[in-house]
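Dear colleague,

As promised, here are the two records you asked about, laid out in our usual form so they can be pasted straight into your sheet.

NAME FIELD: protein one
SEQUENCE, THEN STRUCTURE:
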Amino acid sequence: MNKKKNSIVYDKHNNAYELIKRVGEGGQGIVCQTQHNGVLVKILNTKNQSAINRWQKQLDWSLRQDLSGLNLALPKVQIVKPRLGYVMELMDGLIPLQDVLEKSFSDLIDNQSIKQYIQTGGLKRRLQILLKVAKTLAKLHSRGYAYGDISPANIFVSEDSRYSEVWFIDCDNLCVNEREGFTHIYTPGYGAPEVVKGDMGVNALTDQWSFAVMAFELLTHQHPFKGLHVEDGEPEVVEEQAYRGELPWIYDTDDESNESVGGIDLALVANEKLYKLFDQCFAKGRTQPFERPSLNTWGAALQEALDRLLECPTCSSHYFTNLKSDEQTCPFCSTSVGKEHYALLRQVIYLNEEDSQYSSNLPDSYVETDNVRVVSNGMSLTFNSAPYNTELWFETDENLTVTMSEGDIYFIPESQAVCNISRKNTEQTHQITRKQRIAADRRSASNPYEITNWQKADETNAEFVDLLKTYRWQLV
């Protein structure tokens, strides 16, 4: 924002804020940087007195809410002149997610290149960002709130692509359950069909839709409803139809009239589980909001997708591991690698004696799960003591790090953690107290290493420790 005579605003205590640069724009106002580091100001963009009165009531309510523990840049104090708004605090070093989208989208369109897609973090960072967004929204929903105006302009991420810090701004749209009247706030393209049509106010179900649209766009650089039909039709008319949910989504298997015409192929950036969630949301969920996947469901699927990524040693892009093959081929540059480049860790559940009597047909009295994590050269994975990808998994501390270098695996226990390692076909167990190396030539699919891990503090609870010992990771 250029400096003008009205580019200084004042809060109710008469503190002055100079609006230096516009950094975002949502459904009802603009967000600007100020002369103070880490301080942003949102200015309302309406002069409608009725709308202002409703917004004032909503802001007063927002200022009274306790939303501690969530990465939300909450309203701190109201701006009263020359226009209404509020002040919020945000950590330094963050930029709007919209900037990341625009940078790599321009490269894709102008140069038919995914160089910026990779340089802005590639698939791995995008999945990390979406996982953190999903977890924050899931916690918000669990407290009985909805966010209301999810869009890339309202989510800030680390400017440095090596990191994936996530914070929400524009939090004056938070609501409990569903609001009346002043409910239809959304950023064009991200609002749920029922909100766009004015049939329903924002709630957790409309948040689920907006999240899915944003996730799809961040991964593929396509809007899920702006395909061939929109490309060939009268722009404003068909775009409105798309936003109102009156067209099939671009990967609809029953109706290809609006099929994808650009961007990155969904098959390259979404595994089977993510594809099914997109389809569930945009097919049935288009007209039946209760069919949309919850944010907890999205979080579990995103964690699983992250854990099955490989980094290509040639082009540095990330892609999904084919668990049915030992050789992996990068879809972006066709570089192939074998098991010298990566290893799988699969979670198994050992049965106790009581369970075993009903499962005598199972070898070694354990069950293989679908929980697989991949580590490759130069990468690392962290493990928690709780069962993988459960609510406890996300809440407990990390206690084991697994890394890979030149084909060798390293297990590194964190402080106050107990980690045991053994061969599946032997009874001898070795407790890891420091960094432990497993050479590449010692890995064996027929006799894999098994790892158990838990926190020392839990040794006082024998039943809990025994439970954790039933969950093991096999290195294969």
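NAME FIELD: protein two
SEQUENCE, THEN STRUCTURE:
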Amino acid sequence: MSLNNALPIPTKLHRRIAPPNTVLLSLGAAMLAVIWLLSPVSVAPNRIVPGTSYHLLDAIGWFGALLISLLISALCVLALRTTQAHYWAMLALVIVMLLLMPFGFIVASHWLVNPELPQARVSVGAASWSLLFILLLCLVELRLRLGLSRLSTTLLLSFVGVIWWLCTSSWLQDLALVKEFQARDQQFWRAIRQHLQLVITAVGVSVVAGVLLAMLMRRYIKLQKITFSLLNFLQTIPSIALFGLLLAPLAWASANIPFLAKLGVSGIGTAPALIALIAYSLLPMVRNTYTALEEVSSDTLEAAKAMGMRSSQRFWQVRLPLALPVVLEGLRITTVQAVGLTAVAALIGAGGLGTFIFQGLGQAAMDMVLLGALPILLLALIVDAGIGALAEALRPGGHE
């Protein structure tokens, strides 16, 4: 018997079964665990008395609990097959769950808050915070799998944020965070303005100084080691310690130099905050700018020189445009870092959103802490997404 007759010849090609996405499966299982084991909300009769935690069934009833459980279960089922269609369906489920979260608080507020207690408030529980965090992790995973740009992801989250804002302003007056905002809305907007002024000023100075230092380091090689050593040393100093080190010399300068006193320089306030923020912001800006300018292909520069371009033309028309995406990444890191560090500046009287954080910690009022922390988080996310999307658009090919 010949070999051809002995071995069967396959008549069909077996379809390759897509493997499950273990990351999304694990995140789905974690979501089911947190919504049933932790409390989504707590209700307190006033700001001082500790709240009473309520579980999922008490907060949103059987229908709401069944709905969110079915949505998460559907996400887990879809994660068993990793096709593009399944990923798009999972993205839709994640967005739907994010959109439904404020409506869950509306239902909980309607059922659990006694209308005869005008100071009663609903606080976001551990289950809700955990669910939000895990959903954002799912969004990150789906963005990578689908190859979504930062701009499209930002637009999706902006749409969700608008829905949340409308729900919060219209139907969530009993939410503790809303009550804290209503009690000090003018102070809140003033803190936002102070925070942005500190960040914009510090980042603006660090960008100018960083670009100048990077260009000088390219011209004078010995300056490179000295500059990086100094900037790395500044990064090792804790922010609170650096603010403390600046108190005495700035107080002395204000007392002995009338010009600085007229400018408002003192040991506390805006001056030490700006100096510290600029010191911390310089390293990522200088490092990225220097690296970006140095890594431009020498062949490209030689081609530009062969075309008759002068040195200045090669820099402005070839080297800088090619280095710009990496420079913008440095700007992104610098700005996000400054948004977070500015909160600490409230300890030395510089104002900003950190004021609410430290006041809330002093009064054991976590909702006041969130009133300062959440806008800082949102500002950091907006800056990260916006500058990241711009860098992505300027990068050759228009994507990462």
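A couple of things worth noting about protein two: The chain is about 75% helix and 5% strand. The first helix runs from residue 3 to 6.

Best,
R.
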